[in-house]
Specification:
Elements: H1 6-13, H2 17-56
Length: 57
């Protein structure tokens, strides 16, 4: 691991439930943001396609 002692390695490996919750909440928020952005982009693409299709008729 690159630490000077096993004790030091254990200190850095140790995490609390609170820390793990913060990390998982951050990941969840990032996933929600990405999915929302994709939905907006997909919806915008679909609307543009429908508009072009209607203009061609």
């Amino acid at each position: 691991m690159g630490h000077n002692s096993p004790r030091t390695a254990l200190i850095y490996q140790h995490s609390t439930e609170e820390q793990q919750t913060k990390i998982s909440n951050g990941i969840s928020a990032a996933v929600v943001d990405i999915r929302s952005a994709r939905r907006k982009r997909t919806t915008g693409d679909r609307e543009a396609h429908e508009t072009l299709w209607e203009e061609a008729e």
